[in-house]
Every structure is written in C-alpha cells, then in structure tokens.
C-alpha cells in the first residue's frame, strides 16, 4: 500500500494493539483476493536509521506470516510502537500471529458503542448538554 487514503481507510477497520506494534485490518470488499500490507513508523519512534530498521523487520514478518494467517482481500497495516525495535524478533513474530488470530475472531462490521469513547465525559450526549 502506498496511498494515504488506503491507510486512512484501514484505520476505520479492525485493530489489534500489541506491545511492539498495532495491527489494523480492513476488508476492501472490491472482489480482489489479494492481501495488501502497509507499514507506518513515526518520527516519535526514532531517527531514520531506527525507523528503517523497524520497517525492515515488519516487512519480513508480513511476508512470512500474511500468506498463511492474513485475510484475503484485506489491507493490513502495521504501525510501529515505541520499544518495538528492542523486542526480540521471535517475540514480534509470535505477537503478529496472535494479533492476526484476534482479528480473525472479531466480527467484520461490529457497530461501535459511542458510550465507550475515552476522554469524553459527555459520551453519548451532545457537548452542549454536558455543560
């Protein structure tokens, strides 16, 4: 994946947070069975050398695990987290396999409960009525 719109669309899909990364998966629904993947590592993680090392590790993991454990016709996005570069590669592999398993067991289009939003004391109400 290279287009920003694809990454933003994946953000509306299912997510599985892990200690070293966050996995986002969104089924495209375009009839194409190809699995696509994207990798994002922000500058908060570190300099260019650190970010590129983390992306290389994610690329190897994606190529190894997605053909067997990924969802056909879906976009998979790995977002690097702080501390992910120090994690053992075998541990990252196990975490990605676990995250893919969690994603597979969740319903595709489960409606989100607006009352479960974090940080909003007026969850479910309009901001004007919360005052």
UniProtKB/TrEMBL annotation:
Keywords on record: Endonuclease, Hydrolase, Nuclease, RNA-binding, tRNA processing
Top-level taxon: Bacteria
Enzyme class: hydrolase
Family annotation (Gene3D superfamilies): 3.30.230.10
UniProt entry tagged with the keyword Zinc: no
Residue segments, region Disordered: 105-131
Enzyme Commission number(s): 3.1.26.5
Coiled-coil residue windows: none
InterPro entries named among the record's database cross-references: Ribosomal_Su5_D2-typ_SF (IPR020568), Ribsml_uS5_D2-typ_fold_subgr (IPR014721), RNase_P (IPR000100)
Pfam families, alphabetized: Ribonuclease_P (PF00825)
GO MF, one example: ribonuclease P activity
Entry function: RNaseP catalyzes the removal of the 5'-leader sequence from pre-tRNA to produce the mature 5'-terminus. It can also cleave other RNA substrates such as 4.5S RNA. The protein component plays an auxiliary but essential role in vivo by binding to the 5'-leader sequence and broadening the substrate specificity of the ribozyme.
Family stated for the protein in its record: Belongs to the RnpA family.
Name recorded for this polypeptide: Ribonuclease P protein component
Gene it is expressed from: rnpA
